[in-house]
Amino acid sequence: MKTVLPLGRGLFDKYISAPAYKVQTDHIDHCLSTRRSLNEKKETGADILQWTMDQGKAGNLDEKEVKSMARTMLGAGSKTTANSMTSATALLLQQPETLAKLRKELDEAFPHLSLPLPLEKLKRLPYLDAVLHETMRLRADNKEEGHWGKPVMLNKNAFMPFSLGTRDCIGKTFAWNELRVVIGHIVRRFDLEAGFDVSEIEGADFMTWQVKRPDGLPVKMRPRTT
Ligand code: HEM
After folding, report:
1. Within this chain, do residues 63 and 90 fall inside the same structural domain, yes or no?
2. 175 CB under 6 A from ligand 1?
3. CB neighbour class for 34 (10 Å; exposed up to 12, middle 13-18, buried from 19)
4. Ligand 1: distance of its center to the CA of 169 in Å?
5. Does position 56 have pLDDT exceeding 90, yes or no?
């Protein structure tokens, strides 16, 4: 069985503040107890939480390991995707012609503004894919030397946002889909206005590139009417 415990142990001890750690712990406890109550009523989920809990029941993981797996999923799967969405939005605001082209593709694919944009169709939009790939090429992972040792891959233009090999990102398909859904909906449904100087966005790498401005990247969003 492939567990993700080494990542969880190393990263979380070093990088998560005590209050954030407590919020995560409470949330994980809540999720586990809610799922356990559902399981008692014979309701199961078809997801990784259920799989992890089942491994616990089968004796393959102890309670501490189940919680650590849940923490890893939460940590590895939230800020990474959120930062990538922020990067995509910032880059689109920096390049209005790209934003306009993306919007045109979305408008043509989804003529009805009020209807949800199904993932199956979002997955087949070449320009949306290109925008997201370019965002990830420019802004994804470059490992921080202090924690990971000397980087093996020095060419920052190489495209491997989810790493490679047996320990690559297990959430990559999910992450691509989240990016398609969120960026697709935002661009199709909202007019965006940058509340920051688009020519200067300070950021730094940690798993994904992240903004280093004290007020984040404020963006005004107005619902489109047409
Ligand atoms: C844009 C979003 C994401 C990026 C850029 C990203 C990037 C990465 C990278 C580069 C690694 C490999 C780290 C290494 O070399 O050791 C990794 C591992 C991992 N990622 Fe992601 N990730 C993203 C989203 C997610 C999501 C959504 C999940 C879960 C729902 C997730 C779960 C994991 C886990 C559990 C590992 C460790 C895998 C292992 O050690 O076997 N990631 N991710």
Report:
1. no
2. yes
3. exposed
4. 4
5. yes
